[in-house]
Amino acid sequence: MARIGPNWVICGDGAELRRMWGVRSAWQRAPWYRGLRINPYKDNAFSTLDDQVHEKLRAKLAPGYGGKDVDNLHQLIDEQVASFVSLIERKYLSTKTEFKPVDLARKVQYFTLDVISSLAFGKEFGFLAADKDMFGYIKTTESTLTTLLVVALVPWLLSILQSPRLKWLIPDARKMVGIGTVMDLAEAAVAERYGDKPVVKRDMLGSFVAHGLSKEEAEGETVVQIIAGSDTSATAIRSTLLFVMTSPLVYGRLQAEIDAGIRDGRISAPITDAEARNLPYLQAVIREGLRMWPPATAVLPKISDKDQVVCGVRIPAGTNVAWSTWSIMRNKETFGDDADLFRPERWFDIPADRQRLMEQTVMMEFASGSRWECLGKTVAQIELNKTFVELLRRFDFTLLDPANPWNSFNAAVFIQSDMNVVVTRRSPQQ
Ligand code: HEM
């Protein structure tokens, strides 16, 4: 536990945090979350502080996010994985005679943006097909992210900016290139689902509508989905690939598991989510990737209106208690002395209670087991389960400059680029 500012402490104890985040604890979301409003005058799932309001909202959103009400969740993700593979085949396959390095960080982001837009709107944005930052979305979000976070940390600034009387002071998100376009698309997609002759579909938005989300709420949540679900999953894919590329033993074992699965008929084309869940080494690689480079590092502060004791320290009422993702994911007591090493093997041949503790700890990345568990966890897991197999069964990846593998900037989620990679074709049974 460390004090990091007036009225702020940060906690690196996973067990204490799980207790605080638990369903019946006295801790609540701190006002910091208010900064995550996209519409400054209307809350979304992320920015709702009140537990009861939040619970009701989650009940309307969960069936859609979980895929229960959605006919084609897996198929839509498969289509985008195929589109990602096709982009590499079309433009970025290097051969003995052609050298075509690719910034994989960007292309992975195109992929996750197309996945999430196709789930949210029923039609992908088209980043992969166009192979460019559509409507400057990435540029705009990257340049506004740090401002958003600074504002979230300063409650008085936040309340000024979110006061309806001072509306004229704030830049209108709608007018920002990129985010404005996404908001327009969200509005158009939502508009046809309401009104006199509503279009009824069994997709995520259709599920939100069926469970009673108002039109205004649906517009907000659809935009939240794009923002919450693209950078996070993109970082999980990039960083895991980076660790795999720089760990030859792991790379070889993962490819061998994939090749054996294809040979024995345990992996279809494309791989199904259920098949991927039965590949133990892949699952260990995914957990280890999430652990070594947590994709969401926001402080996620909780607050209590009574004095509390955390890690044996008295915490006065109203203190923000943040979580230290990095120290929890690299904790040596939980993960062993080599916790700083990317080693999927740590997940095998361990006692059941150690396995459970490690699992619980890594899943804190999705705030699992809490009132605030990530609603997109299922979608993220399907993306991870499919992407690595579909890429590694076809291609070999070599970092162009292992001494400078990428540009990575932590802004609660990561802004990453210049992950230059040479991709070559491999035959499945190498
Ligand atoms: C590896 C990928 C992801 C990670 C690590 C991640 C992490 C998180 C975390 C830590 C939270 C809880 C924040 C809090 O309230 O304290 C959260 C919430 C949320 N996530 Fe994710 N997320 C990921 C992918 C996604 C995807 C793909 C989607 C959309 C399909 C998504 C949608 C959401 C939503 C809507 C919430 C708000 C839940 C609520 O307040 O009830 N996330 N995520």
TrEMBL record:
Its cofactor is heme. Keywords: Heme, Iron, Metal-binding. GO terms for molecular function: heme binding; iron ion binding; monooxygenase activity; oxidoreductase activity, acting on paired donors, with incorporation or reduction of molecular oxygen. Heme binds at residue 374. SUPFAM superfamilies: Cytochrome P450. CDD domains: CYP57A1-like. It comes from the Eukaryota. The keyword Iron applies. The keyword Iron-sulfur does not apply. This is Cytochrome P450.
